[in-house]
Specification:
The chain is α/β, with parallel strands linked by helices and about 375 residues long. The chain has two domains: about 230 residues, 3-Layer(aba) Sandwich (Aspartate Aminotransferase, domain 2); about 90 residues, Aspartate Aminotransferase, domain 1. About 40% of the residues lie in helices and about 15% in strands. A seven-stranded mixed sheet has the order 1-9-8-5-4-2-3, with helices on both faces. It has a three-stranded antiparallel sheet with strand order 7-6-10, with no helix packed on it. Helix 1 packs antiparallel against helix 9, helix 3 packs across helix 7 and helix 10 packs parallel to helix 14. The protein is globular and about 70 Å long.
């Protein structure tokens, strides 16, 4: 009797090596709340990777996005250009401040915001442009920044997928006025839940620190810049615990190796399905020549939505967890409250219906990759 193959999940949390030791050190240290020793290590390393940025660790990427919306003084009546093909946190940050999302369609090749459609969407009420570097592939930032500069608009990068990615040799997260990162357990490096806000425009730097500290100048007090601290602005408690930072530091130490491994897995998938793509059975992800991705995910675009759904069922039957991705926000109940309907963003809707994500995690083994390839290839060929 043949043993049943082991289940292959879509994602699996990963220990890089020193997490438990660093957690113990943090727990025994003099400070386990925000901005402790491990927070400073993570901050310094991220700032080294993002030259010119000031980095603040946060409790989540969601909170980093919330901070960006406060920093931009978004208010009722404002509009923000943003893709509909994104996680809800990107848009919630805007809506919570009373702003209206102005959804713009995506490119069919990279699934990123279509830079050729941005200028036509700008109105006198437009306050900012939010871009999402989907799958760790950067948006076409030079034309986007040129349009933003022409109209005096800040650009915020949602770089949740993109730590270690680059556009024309410039790191993702250091391109716009500010950027958010995610350290959720599904990301390349993680601490369960966590994030960071990178500030690149000096105008926002001091205020960002205050917003993160519940609207107080507490950090200035600890640096001896004021003799007492008090409430001076909007804010909330956005500080990551130093316990989580200790876990994150163990991962951040190995970020480059982690990204190389994930990129090697993506290369293996790409090679394995290249013949299927040539036959029109699927479309492979596009990484423009001026972009360096980080192996965050690998997906296939199937010719039809029905075919994608059959693939998902076939993988599930083989005990392999594939998945779809974002349901377009403009067609969701909340999106419809802003006046959007299905059919408004045809490329977004088409891509969402046909996209299939394959298992990819830091500890995935060559044997697991081979099994995903074998089953997926057979399903693509109609077997």
């Amino acid at each position: 009797m043949t043993d049943k193959p082991a289940h292959i999940p879509f994602n699996k949390p990963y220990l890089a090596g020193n997490e438990i030791d660093y957690l113990r050190q943090a727990a025994l240290g003099p400070k386990i709340s925000g901005d402790g020793a491990f927070t400073r290590r993570c901050r310094d390393d991220l700032e080294r990777r993002l030259p010119g940025s000031r980095v603040l660790l946060t409790t989540s990427c969601t909170h980093a996005l919330d901070m960006s919306a406060i920093l931009l003084d978004l208010a009722p009546g404002d509009e923000v250009i943003v893709p509909s093909f994104t996680f809800v946190s990107t848009v919630n940050a805007l809506v919570l401040r009373g702003a209206k999302p102005c959804f713009v369609d995506i490119r069919p090749d990279t699934c990123n915001l279509d830079e050729t459609l941005i200028e036509a969407a700008i109105t006198p009420r437009t306050k900012a442009i939010y871009v999402v570097h989907y799958a760790g592939v950067c948006c076409a930032m030079d034309p986007i920044l040129a349009i933003a500069g022409k109209h005096g608009l800040p650009v915020v990068e949602d770089a949740a997928h993109a730590i270690g990615s680059a556009y024309r040799q410039r790191p993702a997260g250091a391109l716009g006025a500010m950027a958010s990162f995610s350290f959720h357990e599904t990301k390349n490096i993680m601490c369960g839940e966590g994030g960071a806000l990178a500030i690149n425009d000096i105008r926002y730097m001091d205020r960002a620190e205050i917003i993160r500290e519940k609207g107080t100048n507490r950090s200035q007090f600890f640096r001896g810049q004021v003799d007492k601290y008090t409430w001076v602005d909007l804010g909330s408690s956005y500080l990551m615990s130093d316990l989580l930072a200790a876990f994150l530091w163990a991962q951040l130490e190995h970020l480059d190796d982690i990204n190389r491994h994930r990129m090697a897995v993506c290369a293996r998938y790409r090679e394995a399905f290249s013949d299927h793509a040539k036959k029109g059975l699927c479309t492979l992800p596009t990484v423009p020549e001026d972009c360096r991705d980080n192996g965050h995910m690998f997906y296939l675009l199937l010719p039809t939505g029905e075919g994608r759904d059959r693939m998902l069922k076939g993988l599930k039957d083989a005990d392999i967890m594939g998945t779809f991705h974002y349901v377009p926000l403009h067609s969701a109940p909340m999106g419809q409250r802003f006046g959007y309907r299905e059919g408004d963003l045809p490329v977004t809707e088409d891509i969402s219906a046909r996209l299939l994500r394959l298992p990819l995690y830091n500890s995935i083994t060559p044997a697991e990759v081979d099994r995903v390839i074998e089953v997926t290839g057979r399903l693509l060929a109609g077997g």
